[in-house]
Design a protein that fits this description.
The protein has 94 residues and is an all-alpha fold. Helices cover 84% and strands 0% of the residues. It starts with a helix and ends with a helix.
């Protein structure tokens, strides 16, 4: 009897994450279309930050890594952080 409730809670969580990703995509589109003042660098950093958050959520919730062993979760988080650091580093040094 607890299985349907567990599936229902998981389903609501996935739906909430999907909704958040949809809103984040719309926000990214808006930010890209209408940059923050004349500071395009700030807009680009905001867009990259939103993208990295979205990547992490997709990995955790749609690739089922949130239920995986801790080592895999930490490896995926380290990968996202490393890629973000490299992209931000190259962008800011440019």
């Amino acid at each position: 009897m607890t299985t349907p409730l567990l599936l229902d809670r998981s389903s609501r969580l996935i739906t909430g994450v999907w909704l958040f990703l949809s809103v984040a995509t719309g926000l990214s589109w808006y930010m890209g279309s209408y940059p923050i003042g004349t500071e395009r660098r700030l807009t680009a950093i905001g867009l990259m930050t939103i993208a990295m958050v979205k990547v992490r959520l997709v990995i955790l919730y749609f690739m089922e890594v949130r239920c995986a062993p801790r080592t895999l979760r930490l490896t995926c988080d380290a990968w996202v952080l490393t890629i973000a650091a490299v992209i931000f580093g190259f962008y800011l040094l440019h």
